Every structure is written in structure tokens, then in C-alpha cells.
């Protein structure tokens, strides 16, 4: 099944918090069917960039376009309606729902009202539930978590909760998916499954933007890498160029 991926174009984005300039005219371009990684040291502005793309913060200057639609002034639910889904560093899973319910509800990540209906079990939820459950079962199978479907989602260890976040984003069939530090806390098996899932999303046609500390994972997954330092893009290119870039080696990897 194909996903109708959308080009993500961020141009000259700036954002300050008081006198702290988190982003200084930063630009990035992410394409459907490709994994674009955003890397950089702590405090370089990666999370701020994601928060602005998904409409949590508004830009001081610059533009954001999703499939040609300018979204920089959209509230987060309108950005979601353009097909942008994201995961959170702290998994954002509601209390007292099962793994299956949590993943099925991800279907509504692009529409907050329906997501609420899901958890309140309103009639709109019951109407659509059967399809959603089938889709959620398929995704859980793919991430090797089918046997955990009836567990309480928040009771899982961190690595699995992160995987669940990704599964929730996948069932939404997002045009653009923003993955924020999903690999931390995962063991080797989980990392392999995670990589498989991200490649499947990409190959289905989604635009994947990955913020990730694990440089080895970035090198193995990314088609293109953007490096931020102090709110500015200092390098961008394919992994084989970035891994040799002198400023990346010195500033980012400390070599
Ligand atoms: P990264 O994700 O690369 O670690 P962040 O985007 O979290 O970097 O942070 C970039 C800078 O912006 C940091 O100096 C951080 O302290 C600041 N910052 C981020 N979010 C806020 C906020 N909500 N309020 C104030 N300062 C913030």
C-alpha cells in the first residue's frame, strides 16, 4: 500500500526563546520515499525544529511548507490534518489502554477530536473500530509486538513504549513522519525491528524526518543528513559525505 508522501520544505527558520536564539535561519528539505536525518549536539535546535514543523511553536521568521501548503502559522491540529505525524521523546501513551488500543488510536493522530472519541469510546469510535483494529494488528505483527496486544501499554519497558510510539505513527499512514529520538532505550533486536519499520515507511512513500543521537543508526538509515550546530545548518548531504565532514567530526562527534 502506497503512502502519498509530501515534500517538507523548511526555509530560513528562526526562533528565539527570550535572548536564547534556538534556530538561526535554518533550512531543510525532506522528500517522499527518503529518510532525512537531523543531527547535532544537545541544544543545537533539533527539537525546536520538530516542534515548529508540527505547529507547537510559531516561527519568528521563515517558512514551512508541507506538500506546497504553507503551514508555519497553522496550529498543530491543522498541521496534523496535512498528514504530519510525530513521536515524542517521552512516549505519549494514555493511561489504562491496551497496546492494541494505543496503536489503533494512532489512526487519529492526524485528527485530535477523533482521538478523543477513541479514548472516550464515543459512537464515532465504534463505527470505525473494526478497520482500525485490523490495521493495528498488522502493524503490531510487523514490529514483533503482536503477543503484547492485551498488555497495558504504559506498563511496557521504555524501548517497547518507543516502538509503540512509532507503531502509532505508522497506522496514521502519515505523509510526513517526524521521529524524535526513538532509538534511545532500545536493545539490538528492537533496533533491527525499528530500522525495518522505518525503511518500510520510506519505501511505501512517506517522508521520514529522523532526529537521532545514535550516529551508527543514522548512517545506516538516512538517505540524507542535515547537521545543526547552535541553531544553524553547518552541513548537509549523503551519509558518506557527512561522516567525513571535518566540522561534523570535531563539533558533533568530538573527534
Ligand atoms: P536539541 O533538541 O538539539 O537538543 P533544543 O531544540 O531542545 O535542542 O534546544 C535549542 C535551544 O533552545 C536550547 O538552548 C534550549 O535551551 C532552548 N529551548 C528549547 N525549547 C525551549 C523553550 N520551550 N523555552 C526556552 N528555551 C527553549
From TrEMBL:
Ranges for domain ABC transporter: 8-255
Subcellular location: Cell membrane
Endpoints of the signal sequence: none
Taxonomic superkingdom: Bacteria
Name of the protein in question: Branched-chain amino acid ABC transporter substrate-binding protein
Source organism: Gordonia phthalatica
Covered range of the whole protein: 339 to 593 of 608
